[in-house]
Amino acid sequence: MAKMDMDGLWMVERAFWLDGVEAYEANLHDEAVMVFPGLGILDREAIIDSIRHAPRWTQLEMSDQRAITAGTTAVLAYAAEGRREGAEPYRARCISTYVKRPEGWRMISHQQTPV
Are 80 and 59 in contact (CB under 8 A)? Predict the structure, then answer.
């Protein structure tokens, strides 16, 4: 995958954290699953519903970023530190998997492990 394409995927990844539900509706695969601490395993409908009701992150720092591609699949792994208004920082190790669709890259899975 070209560096420009990979940079675009990292921008989408940031949007999942910082932007509203529109980022999820536009970039989440129809069959997506996510694993969140305290919430469990969520399908696309539950993911979008939970985002509608959760406060958004106001800041995000990503470090130890790694990306691999294999054909029509891309995996992003990184350490995240997110901040919400009036809350303690949240730190996690994250991994997201994207698949290439005719309309572009779509996230099909994401997992967060708090540290």
Answer: no
Q: pLDDT (tens digit, 9 = 90+) per residue, 20-33?
A: 899 999 999 999 99
Q: CA–CA separation, 71 vs 89, rounded Å?
A: 36
Q: What domains sit in the chain, N to C, each tagged with a CATH number? A: 3-114 (3.10.450.50)
Q: What DSSP state is assigned to residue 56? A: P
Closest CA relative to residue 37, chosen from 89, 107, 108, 93? 93
User: pTM (2 decimals)?
Assistant: 0.93
Are 107 and 97 a contacting pair, CB within 8 Å?
yes
The backbone torsions φ and ψ at residue 79, rounded to the nearest 5 degrees and listed phi first, read: -100, 140
Report the C-alpha gap between 70 and 15 in whole angstroms.
23
Phi, psi of 69 (to 5 degrees): -130, 150
